[in-house]
Amino acid sequence: MHGMSAPDMPSPSVRGQDLAAFARLLADPTRAGFCLALLDGRAWTASELARHAGVAASTATEHLNLLVAGGVLVQERQGRHRYLRLAGTETAELVESLAAMAPRGSVLTPVRSLSAAGRRNALARARTCYDHLAGALGVAITTTMTDRGLLVWEGGLALTSRGTAWLADLGVVVPAANRRPAVRSCLDWTERRPHLAGAVGAALCAHAFGAGWIVRIGSTRAVALTAAGHDALRAHLDMTDQTLAPVVR
Amino acid sequence: MHGMSAPDMPSPSVRGQDLAAFARLLADPTRAGFCLALLDGRAWTASELARHAGVAASTATEHLNLLVAGGVLVQERQGRHRYLRLAGTETAELVESLAAMAPRGSVLTPVRSLSAAGRRNALARARTCYDHLAGALGVAITTTMTDRGLLVWEGGLALTSRGTAWLADLGVVVPAANRRPAVRSCLDWTERRPHLAGAVGAALCAHAFGAGWIVRIGSTRAVALTAAGHDALRAHLDMTDQTLAPVVR
DNA sequence: AGGACCCTTCGGTGACGGCCGAACGGTCGC
DNA sequence: GCGACCGTTCGGCCGTCACCGAAGGGTCCT
Fold this sequence. Notes:
homodimer, two-stranded antiparallel ribbon, alpha+beta, DNA-binding, disordered N terminus
């Protein structure tokens, strides 16, 4: 905002400046790439992020300083490493909804290598989205929960009393009473369909890890459904092999 | 992203580009100012927005073209006027949460004139926030509804059955069954406290206008509580003069 | 028809900011 | 302690983009 027309505006809301300053944090491809990578909910080192985005370490440092100063990321220094995480669930959800609203890269991201294709498929099948489950698995669980009457969508997503009982039966503890919505819908970028997020989505995901239903594939966001997980979903959600098909292959 | 390190990245997620491109739309003070102004949910003409932001008409045109092309705004041409609105409630909510997360303009916006001070007070007392009520009035109604057991916050905001009955009793019709959350919490920028948004918040606000409880002050986002509105709030919500105090003065 | 008004197009200007590489201070491991 | 490694600081480069004013097309009112 230079060029300067009026020497000093009466104050047509200094707020516009604030919003713009914050939005600018995500308005750079490199910084945006950092945030998207960090959507997996884990902490990355500065150099990991730099490599991921394809920029020099010095460039990454500058960007990370901005993001931390702006409150988008938080850092933790350990020895010679600088670990970075998204500042919190609110931030993660903001990045998610921003990404969901952004027009999809028209260019249908070309896949250049077999391993990249495999990685992509694994991500499409099942992955974590910050702290809950996404991908075909996340969508399948969500739709099945709806079919079983555990979730309702009319007039906003909500957990039914049967849903509450089902969670209790599983032994899933939902941290209650804070400001975070219990259930929230999160749009899946591969499936283009909503899946379960919010406190319940996070608790369910944590339970799935804890009970060995799913395991991480390497150090990516992708997860694999274990045999135990397969059985558990059939037992507790009465999921058919058919609904699970896109997930197991 | 120039400077070019690798000639052509394997594809470290072209997604970063998309997110950045979208975020850039809000990353300019002028464009951000436009969006904040449009948060009142009404359509503004291009020149109104230009004057509001203190830029030349030609500059405004450029910005508006970008925002429309990016899907943030929608336009409607009428004669020699170009009317602009936010594209939808999703967009409005995104702008809201982005603005809520942006660090407040450290500079405590200096108020230069008496009329500006009056305007500011009017806005702080009661205003529309896209399509629902904000300001002291919005917050007061929300807290009272909570006190009366119409709303609960535990494990995510929700309407109780008493709340549903209360709305029906008022004759408020909540458009159900679409993807929009029935109740949603929206952070107030003056009060720094949450108030009721979502489909119910919008319906309640519409009802308040329709029943003459509130009227717009001039052509701003500010609204005034009428005598009828005052009585209605006491009758239907059992609101005391005390809880209404910050609103009526 | 004429004039006022709303908006758009176009050229030109200047600042901001993202990028790199090289040099440097910490921290770890052998 | 000596190398390997992670991160930071500093200059310098250059593209992008927000801005304006002047000129021009449309639309409405009288």
